[in-house]
Design brief:
Blueprint: H1 2-39, H2 43-71, H3 73-92, H4 97-125, H5 128-160, H6 163-167, H7 169-183, H8 198-217, H9 221-242, H10 252-255, H11 258-274, H12 277-288, H13 293-300, H14 302-320, H15 323-341, H16 350-376, H17 384-413, H18 424-450
């Protein structure tokens, strides 16, 4: 009975935090044109409002996953919620674009502490037979956040201003903190007493910064140089971790564990191909179709609503059927949804956009929770924090790459100027090319998903 109470408390807290962070992300996407107008930001700078959060999150996810395994997952989780809540308040009070970007970085650090531990705590208390269902509910909360984000974010941006999008996170964050202190008893530390690999964490973090910042500077020479430094960083990090007794990321998980390696690769491809969709469609609906933030939000809500409805079912299905089969079907549906969006133009009927979003929603629901189930079930207990952090890193690096592709295409086609009626045709061209790249990526991802092999 006590175990059931702990499970319910963990599921409640993990589900609430899984709602808050994507709710913020999808709300901010809708608010971007208003933020850009307020601070007179060009298309590329505007992208950094979203990218700065993702970059900070990706840098700290794996290190915090490891720290949580050593010092306690609940402790790091609680610190993460606190940082996330405070940075939300200061984001709302920002007086310049640079100030907002800096607090978005802080928000990303808090987000890393949440993402690197939430799924690990869930996996710690739910056994294999119940795990898919719990992860399905958790993923459903993510998509409920994504669903309400565009709708409520659009409504608040239109009637209360973009700052309200950040302010709403403050009471939600305090509610989660109260629940943690009141309901979440006990601590989980699967690698207690082990050493933390600081040098490996620094190499890892600097490598990600070099790659992602370099990506944003392309096609310039400095961008190419930074990406090459990043590639050298990956090689250095791999070499260091292979020879470290207590690595921040056990490379053997990738080398010797086929399911873990290919499930993470499939997640990276999936997020790289889909994460910029709501960003691009938010701009498309408001600039090209002339929708208000509220109405654009209502259109975009169709995709995550489908995700929220079908994710628990897909999670339960992956407890009974091979997760790679369910996830690969999901990846195929996602490819189809992206293919439809390639044909976007000024006269595209709303029905086609809605239909594409529904197919994308179905695809993501059938991919995400089965894929997470496959990753978490493929490692032993002491690696839950690292595995949770790794798959969350794949999500955030994928989101960054997705935004990086969008930023690069904006830089190539539109340049560093505000999106105005005279450059709408160039905006549409860059969007079309983005969806072609995303559809091809997702198509290749089907094979990565199938290649993982059977669960033992």
């Amino acid at each position: 009975m006590k175990d059931d109470a702990i499970k319910k408390s963990v599921l409640l807290v993990a589900t609430l935090t899984s709602f808050i962070t994507p709710f913020m992300g999808s709300s901010v996407n809708i608010a971007l044109p208003s933020i850009g107008k307020d601070f007179s930001m060009d298309a590329v700078s505007l992208s950094w409002i979203a990218t700065s959060y993702l970059l900070a999150g990706a840098i700290f996810l794996v290190p915090f996953g490891r720290i949580a395994d050593i010092y306690g997952r609940k402790k790091i989780f609680t610190y993460g919620i606190s940082i996330y809540t405070i940075s939300s308040l200061f984001s709302a009070l920002s007086t310049s674009s640079m100030m907002l970007i800096l607090f978005r970085v802080l928000q990303g650090i808090g987000g890393a502490m949440i993402f690197g531990t939430g799924v690990a705590i869930l996996t710690s208390v739910f056994p294999v037979g119940e795990r898919g269902k719990a992860l399905g509910i958790n993923v459903s909360a993510v998509y409920t956040g994504l669903s309400l984000g565009p709708f409520l974010g659009g409504f608040m941006t239109q009637h209360l201003g973009w700052r309200s999008v950040f302010l709403i996170n403050v009471p939600l964050g305090f509610l989660v903190l109260l629940l943690i202190l009141w309901k979440l008893k006990g601590e989980w530390a699967g690698a207690k007493g082990e050493k933390f690999d600081l040098a490996g964490s620094v190499i890892y973090s600097l490598t990600l910064v070099a790659i992602m910042y370099g990506f944003s500077l392309l096609p310039g020479t400095s961008g190419v140089v930074l990406i090459l430094i990043g590639v050298l960083g990956i090689l250095s990090f791999t070499y260091w971790e292979m020879n470290e007794k207590a690595p921040v990321l056990d490379i053997n998980l990738f080398v010797k564990n086929r399911i873990f390696a290919f499930s993470n690769l499939a997640a990276l491809v999936n997020y790289s191909a889909t994460s910029a969709v709501s960003f691009l469609l938010s701009l498309y609906l408001q600039y090209i179709k002339g929708f208000s933030p509220q109405n654009a939000g209502i259109v975009l809500v169709s995709q995550p609503i489908i995700m929220a409805i079908f994710s628990p079912f897909a999670g339960r299905l992956s407890d009974r059927i091979e997760p790679r089969i369910v996830a690969s079907i999901g990846m195929s549906l996602t490819t189809l949804g992206l293919f439809f969006l390639v044909f976007l133009n000024q006269r595209t009927p709303l029905e086609l956009i809605l239909g594409s979003l529904v197919v994308l929603g179905l695809g993501f629901a059938f991919f995400s929770s089965p894929n997470t189930n496959a990753v978490m079930s493929s490692v032993e207990k002491k690696f839950y924090g690292v595995a949770s952090g790794t798959i969350a890193t794949m999500r955030m690096v994928g989101q960054m790459l997705s935004m990086g592709i969008a930023m690069l295409l904006f830089a190539l086609y539109i340049g560093r100027v505000q999106i105005m009626p005279q450059n709408f045709p160039l905006f549409l061209k860059s969007t079309k090319v983005a969806f072609i790249i995303f559809a091809l990526l997702c198509f290749l991802g089907i094979f990565a998903s199938l290649a993982r092999g059977k669960r033992e």
